[in-house]
Amino acid sequence: MGQEDVVSSEEMFVEQQNINFQTFFFEALQQKAIGNYDKAVFALEACNNIEKDNVAVLFELSKNYAMLIKYTEAEYYILKGLENEPLNLHMLRHLKEIKTKRNDYLGAIKVQNTINSLKPEEEADLVILYIKSGEIDNAIKLLKKLDDLNKLPEGLEALKESLLQDGSGPMLKISEPVIESSPMRQVDRLKEAYALNRDYNTLVTLLEEQWKTKQYLDLLKDSEEGLSLFPAQPSLYLMNARALNSLRKYKEAMQILEEGLDYIIDDNNLTAFFYEELSLSHKAMGNNKQATDFYNKALDLKDK
C-alpha cells in the first residue's frame, strides 16, 4: 500500500506539472499574439523551469526576446534549441535573422550556408548578405551562377544589372528598410490609399499595420469588409480571426479559420499561421489537447 501511494503521488505530481507546463506555454502564446512580449517571456521561463531545454519553449523564448530587441538573449536561446535540433530549418532561419540584426554578417552567411545544404533553392539569400559583409565579388559570382541556371529571383534582377554594369561592379551600400516614425500615421495613410483604390494588396498591408498597432476593432471591421470583396483570399480570413481572438471571440475565430483553410493552396507557412491561431482559440476555450495538436501541426509545417 505504501509503495502504491508513492507511485500514485509521483504520477499526480507529473500530471500536475504537465498541466502547469501547458497552461504557461499557451499563456505565452496568447501574450505574444497581442504584443505583450515581456509577459510571454515570464510564462516561458516558467515552462523552462518545469521542463528544461524543451525545443518549442527555447524557440519561443528566442522569438520573444528578438521582438524586445534583446538579441543577445534571443541568440542564446535559439542556439540552445539548435543544440537539440541542429538541422531545424525554421530555427536556422531565425538565427540568421538575429545575426543580421546584430550586424554579424559573416555569422549570418555561415548559417545561410547550412540552410542551403538543406534547401538549395534558398541560395539566393546569400547575395544581400555578401554585399552587406563587403564581399562584392562573391555576390557577383553568385548572381552570375543563379542567372546562368535561370534561378535568379525577380527581386534581384535590378541588383544584378547594377553590379554588372561596368564589369567589375560598383561599390554599393544596401540601405535598410525605412521605418515609419509614427505607425499610427502609417495606418492613416494606408486607410486613405485603400479608400481610393480598394486594392487587395493595399488592404493586406493596412490590416497588418492595424494588427501591429493593436487596433483590433478596426482590424475586425476592415477585414470583414475585405472578405465581402475578396472572399477567396485566405490571408483575410487569418487577419479577421486574429482580430476575433484578440477580442476574445474565440468560437467565431475558429469558424473563420476553418472556412479560410479551404482556400489555401500549397502554402505551408500560411497554413501554419492558421494552425497557430486555432491553437490559441482552443486554448482559450479550455480545449488543451486540440490546442497542443494544432500548435504541433504549425511547427511541423514551418520546418518543411
Automatic annotation (TrEMBL):
This is Tetratricopeptide repeat protein. The lineage of its organism: Bacteria, Pseudomonadati, Bacteroidota, Flavobacteriia, Flavobacteriales.
